[in-house]
Amino acid sequence: MGTLAAGIGHELNNITTAYLGLLDEVREQAATGRPPSPDTLANLEQIGRHYRMHGTHMLGIGRPGLDQPMRLDPCDVTRDTLSMLGTVGKTKRLDVRTDFSVASSFVFADRRRIEQVLVNFVSNASDATAGNADGQRRLTVTVGRGADGFVFCDIEDNGCGIPEQDLDTIFDPYFTTKVPGQGTGLGLSVVKQIVESCRGKVTVRSRVAVGTVFTFALPASPDETGPVD
User: Fold this and answer.
1) Are the CB atoms for 143 and 215 separated by under 8 Å?
2) pLDDT at 61 over 90
3) Residue 27 reports pLDDT greater than 70
4) Cβ neighbour number for residue 123 with a 10 Å cutoff
5) What is the DSSP letter of 166?
């Protein structure tokens, strides 16, 4: 229960950071007599829905069926999530590139859960590249379909990298390579649980001072006729 509560608290902290960033933007616009932009309002709504999702999960601890899986286009979910992160400034100094050139098919999952996975990976990439000496901070997100029938998403950065001896424990609860006060060590553990609950898998490749690639993959949806979000 303690691990679960800490994990939820970690995710709520991430959401609060995004909310406060948007609030500052609205205040700046109001000070000059401008209304909030449609993108800002849309992202505030998305954040509110995230809060509601976590509140619902907390109220229903121990009861299955709280997720609302549906057939999703992972390219659309990725675009929307990157747009939201850009609006709140999380990727402001990142050179973000996307590759959706390979048809990815659909997956069957709860949309907000997949957004949560993407937010965590992209936020980690932003943190990992913050100290780049040359100031060049790159993030490449690739979505495609593998030969194994899984739809995959690669999140690649050119940051500090992860020491080889830490790669086997990077998804363990409370393990973190960040300095004290900058990470709880729960984000990747929560991500792994989410992906595996969707019958998916998470892998990582990394080289110190070169960069890191996190990959999560989900089974392609066999249902080509159901509702799509």
Assistant:
1) no
2) no
3) yes
4) 17
5) G
Tokens of 134: 């040359």
Residue from 142, 163, 165, 169 nearest 208 by CA: 163
User: Tell me, what DSSP letter sits at residue 38?
Assistant: H
Q: What is the signed CA dihedral for 107, 108, 109, 111, rounded to 10 degrees?
A: 60
Q: How far is CA 196 from the centre of its chain?
A: 15
Both tokens assigned to 226 = 């159901």
Q: Are 140 and 189 in contact (CB under 8 A)?
A: no
Exposed/middle/buried for 13, CB within 10 Å: 0-12, 13-18, 19+? Answer: exposed
Amino acid at 89: G
- Inter-axis angle of helices 187-197 and 2-31, nearest 10: 110
Q: Is this model's pTM higher than 0.85 or not?
A: no
Q: Sorting pLDDT into bands at 50, 70 and 90, what band is 191? A: confident
Q: Is the pLDDT of residue 58 over 70?
A: no
Give pLDDT, residue 180: 44
The residue type of 1 is: M
Q: How many residues does the chain have?
A: 229
